[in-house]
Amino acid sequence: QVVNYAPFTLLPSAVPSALFEQAYAVQQDFNLLVDAISQNREFLEHTLASTIKVDDFTARLFRIYTQVLEEGLAQSVFLGINRSDYMFDCGADGTPALKQIEINTIAASFGGLTSRTPAVHRQVLKVLGKAEEASRLLPNNPSQGLALGIVKAWELYGSQSAVVMFLVEEVQRNIFDQRCIENELWNRNIRVIRKRFRDVFEKGSLDDARRLYIDGQEVAVVYYREGYVPQNYDPQNWEARLLLERSKAVKCPDIATQLAGTKKVQQELTRPGTLERLLPGRAASVARIRATFAGLYSLDLGEEGDKVAAKAIAAPDCFVLKPQREGGGNNLYGEELRHVLEKIKDSPERTSYILMDKIKPQPSKNYLLRPHSPLKISECISELGIFGVYIRQGKEMVMNKSAGHLLRTKAIEHADGGVAAGVAVLDTPYLV
Ligand code: ADP
Ligand code: MG
């Protein structure tokens, strides 16, 4: 067993306060939107139809989704924990604009560790003789905010003896991030167990009311920190996933909400009229959401997709090519984007990708500290994430909140990749 410290910046990074506030102000709208999509079978079917023909992973998730719907849902309490990520796009006149990179609806991480980074950066600033600046760093406690969502879902499930199950990876690299949230639950006298898909396959069962049991313990809430990439699944793990989805337990997220977070859905949301259809009577929410959208384009077969592909091949540095994957390190940029698109431009494989305008933030200097790495100054860009938590009981929203933020910073030579991918590091916003 090896323990390393999580990588972090030496200094907090400047973040425009207007954009920071804008990101917080739109979070409850995004919670509503994700929840609305998760309940809209027709939208999910229509939107993912082309994707599931070519992307086996999305297709398998989709199969479980329809199977569970056809059986009839046993679950009646829904808990969403998401993180909406943004970069600050630098316009021609130098004014930065908030642009969404993506929204993560499953296993959105680093809420735990980042609850500790303000204290780190406050300390560094004090050591540098900058006590005034240190006092201006905002407190940030997603650990607590996310845990309070889990607590409320556990209460609504309504069984004192039931536990919360963290569904975790075989190799647990980010365990301390999860422990921060777990400890908040223990502090409120809620029992937490940590299990893998394999444990669920071997020891999980449903009773007649489809209550979920593992090792004889009833499970009220399943909090997925696993299950978002194909490598997390073998045939037994798929069976375990189906068992969990069929159960009455509150899944965070349920499979419909995971599908709502796919990149194909993100792209379709930018079509004129789509947000209005998904959020009827909520014009202000729609406007706030749309203001954060960058250009996103479908590569579905047909005239529209042909034009988009040709545009990207002609100017690859203006775009990002994204497959239906999570976790960082999967997107294509520049020459590689051009090369791949040229190869697949006439094949159905094209539809497993979407195309996005490349966001170009203004870089700034910082030191990125990671274990066993030399200390050197880097040109960096940052990505701001806002955590959202919501709970729906039947048709009624009973919680809808933002729950803190995450700032991640990386050197500009890396086009892609988050903290887990070994590229970005934890940071704290210094509002300017
Ligand atoms: P993943 O699901 O793998 O995290 P993302 O869409 O978040 O996929 O992309 C991964 C990383 O790639 C982001 O953290 C960001 O650094 C970079 N990236 C993604 N989209 C863009 C974009 N449109 N412009 C610039 N960089 C981007
Ligand atoms: Mg991401």
Automatic annotation (TrEMBL):
Pfam families: GSH_synth_ATP, GSH_synthase. Mg(2+) binds at residues 102, 104, 326. It comes from the Eukaryota. ATP binds at residues 102, 263, 322-331, 333, 356-359, 383, 410, 416. It is an enzyme of class 6 (ligase). Transmembrane segments: none annotated. Its cofactor is Mg(2+). GO terms for cellular component: cytosol. One of its GO terms (molecular function) is metal ion binding. Its EC number is 6.3.2.3. The keyword Magnesium applies. Binds 1 Mg(2+) ion per subunit. The keyword ATP-binding applies. SUPFAM superfamilies: Glutathione synthetase ATP-binding domain-like, PreATP-grasp domain. Residues 162-260 form the Glutathione synthase substrate-binding domain. Substrate binds at residues 83, 106-109, 172-174, 178, 225-228, 408, 419-420. Gene3D superfamilies: 3.30.1490.50, 3.30.1490.80, ATP-grasp fold, B domain, Glutathione synthase, substrate-binding domain superfamily, eukaryotic, Glutathione Synthetase, Chain A, domain 3. Keywords: ATP-binding, Glutathione biosynthesis, Ligase, Magnesium, Metal-binding, Nucleotide-binding. InterPro entries: Glutathione_synthase, Glutathione_synthase_a-hlx, Glutathione_synthase_C_euk, Glutathione_synthase_N_euk, GSH-S_sub-bd_sf, GSH_synth_subst-bd, PreATP-grasp_dom_sf. PANTHER family: GLUTATHIONE SYNTHETASE. Belongs to the eukaryotic GSH synthase family. Catalyzes the production of glutathione from gamma-glutamylcysteine and glycine in an ATP-dependent manner. Glutathione (gamma-glutamylcysteinylglycine, GSH) is the most abundant intracellular thiol in living aerobic cells and is required for numerous processes including the protection of cells against oxidative damage, amino acid transport, the detoxification of foreign compounds, the maintenance of protein sulfhydryl groups in a reduced state and acts as a cofactor for a number of enzymes. Participates in ophthalmate biosynthesis in hepatocytes. Homodimer. This is Glutathione synthetase. It comes from Crypturellus soui. The gene is Gss.
